[in-house]
Prior knowledge:
Blueprint: H1 7-16, E1 27-34, H2 45-50, E2 59-61, E3 64-65, H3 71-80, H4 114-120, E4 124-130, E5 144-148, H5 157-168, E6 174-180, H6 189-194, H7 202-211, H8 272-295, E7 304-312, E8 314-315, E9 329-330, H9 336-339, E10 340-341, E11 343-346, E12 353-355, E13 359-360, H10 364-369, E14 397-402, E15 405-410, E16 413-418, H11 430-435, E17 444-448, H12 464-478, H13 491-500
Parallel strand pairs: 1-6, 1-7, 2-12, 3-13, 4-5, 4-6
Antiparallel strand pairs: 2-11, 3-10, 7-11, 8-9, 14-15, 15-16, 16-17
Amino acid sequence: MNPSWPLSLVLALGSSCHRPEPPPPDLLVFLVPGLRADVPDGPGAEAAFLAPFEPEPLRRFTAAYAQSASPWVSLGSMLVGRYPSAIPLCGRVGELALAEQPWCSTLPETRPSLPEILGLYGYHSAIIQSGPGDSAELGDRFGEVQVLPAIDGRSDWETLGARLEALWQRPEPVFAVVVLGDLAVQQRPDLRQAMGLPALPSRCEQAAQRTGHPRLDGGPGVEEATAPVEPGKLAPAGPGIEPSCTLDTWDPKVDGLEGPLVPSYPWGTVEPDRVRSVYTDEAARVGQGIQGLLAERGPGPQPWVVLAGLHGISMGEVSGVQPMPKIFAGAQLLLDRTVRVPLAFMGPGVAAAELTQPVELLDLMPTLLARTVAQPPALLPGQDLLAPGFTLDASAAAYAEFGDMLYLRQGAWSLTLRTVSHRGTALDPSLTARLQQPVADSAFHLYRVDRDPFQQRELKAEQAAMAKQLRQRMIDIRIGPGAPPEELRDAERSMELRLQGSEGYW
């Protein structure tokens, strides 16, 4: 360049030169089924899970909600950025009561997913299931699927680290979803014992590993379903019938079915302090494991990292939409604690923040796509949680569905619709009709969950106006972005739904 040129011209020429675009960032999503958000009474498993990342600025959402109490359905909803009924998605083929109708047990081709969209923009996608779980069944949307066995019910962090390192060495940007099954109650003997649950016999352990739940293989008639079984023992088999995976008593409601069995839990003694301790320690171990994986990544462009629960669990608490006669451990009901999950982001330029407004896991699709040049599909209901203008919105709401139940959180309040249609599915059009009933209907349950996270005090009679407001918001979602497809209104298809049931529900 001529040294006699004016400085202003030199600067002008320099500013017009093409600067290479920064490489697309890697996108890493770590999901922990069973990890629920903490309640206001103090730090718990969520705090323990996120503590190893505290040196890094985290953008946290304290009222994040999964769209289903089923981890598999929750993952499917997150990957396509839509509510389960609108996909439509009701559960895995292997977990449904009658699996002859796989039309709602897989992601339809008409619903583009995160890995497919990112693939159009040069990303290599991978899903890794570490330990118990079934996320790999959604692997046909990814470029790569890996399933890593657990070691004593926990993730094999060394092998997982090696698999991620191989991904990070690829020349193209990577979108990786890692699902960590370390908190699966069925596989955690220490959690089961603290919850007063018997150990699973080895045959049932195999069934649990295969399907996520023990299965009912047969048993005595209803008239014999009276005497409890000693914890840790199999229920007595009838003549010519193999012993069942039932854990303590025969349940007449499910006797003889070929489908999944939600275990009939014993009237054992729950040790709440021990449950909390074991669960919190395990969550801390998972957080430390993820932090160790990220620390081994080495120098290079900073990735975007998502840390989240995929659904929550109930740990022996019996409060909820109605008094529960038995101890529920798991996510068989749509409760605030079974769908409110931790959610935090780390990435380039993220400032530490804690946001309290309700958000949804389906927001991850537009959020992650916005970190790239990829364009989202039209009419997605979610929002970019990392947008510069994202601010507190008092009208924000989160919506979830499971079995015969719908759930809405708005502000400090929650409304549940439960129709008590056992083995039902939220795809059933009858739920839409039931929503139109007055809030005095016994199916509606109102709680102020910011003060009452375990939903112990029902407030519908005292706060009828609030119940009506939330019901209208629920209706707007149910007939709008959460509406089941039109063809489900067909009588024959509705009957198929009732026969098929919903994953993990009674």
